[in-house]
Amino acid sequence: MKQIFALITGVVFGTGIAISGMMDPAKVLNFFDVAGTWDPSLAFVMGGALVVTFIGYRLAWKRSAPLLGERFQIPTNSTIDMKLVGGSALFGIGWGIAGFCPGAAIPALGTGRWEVALFVAAVIVGFYLRRLLSSVGAATATN
């Protein structure tokens, strides 16, 4: 049942990304080009997402447990460290350069554009590289 709801959620998200035009990196990059061909539509998409999220969380927190789980899994670490800052900066730089965030790139794979496939491949390599570097750092720290 969880997989079905995950699939439905992914389809709704991907449909929203497609309808809003956020699969087009030029549209995203134009949002960042304030002095040139500025396109404010990304701000409206983000604003709409914030409204839906705000309402969704208010409804969810009224429940004692999630619909498909035993308990809510809430992060307890609120530390702002260099890994968080560096990862956020890397995400923002990549988004600004490529015009994609990973969430929009996955549905954009359906366009068949090689740039999207290259971006998703780079994200996957980045995930594994980070995991590798973390394990090497942990092994070095214990020696």
Secondary structure blueprint with pairings:
Layout: H1 2-20, H2 25-32, H3 41-60, H4 82-98, H5 102-108, H6 114-142
Helix pairs in contact: 1-5, 2-4, 5-6
The whole-angstrom Rg is 18 Å
- How many separate domains make up the residues? 1
Ranges where pLDDT stays below 50 over 5 or more residues in a row are: none
Number of strands: 0
Report the principal-axis shape: globular
Sequence of secondary-structure elements: HHHHHH
Classify the helix fraction into a percent range: 55-70%
In terms of DSSP E residues, the strand content is: under 5%
Q: How many DSSP helices? A: 6
Protein name: YeeE/YedE family protein
Keywords: Membrane, Transmembrane, Transmembrane helix
Organism: Sulfitobacter geojensis
Transmembrane segments: 42-61, 82-106, 112-129
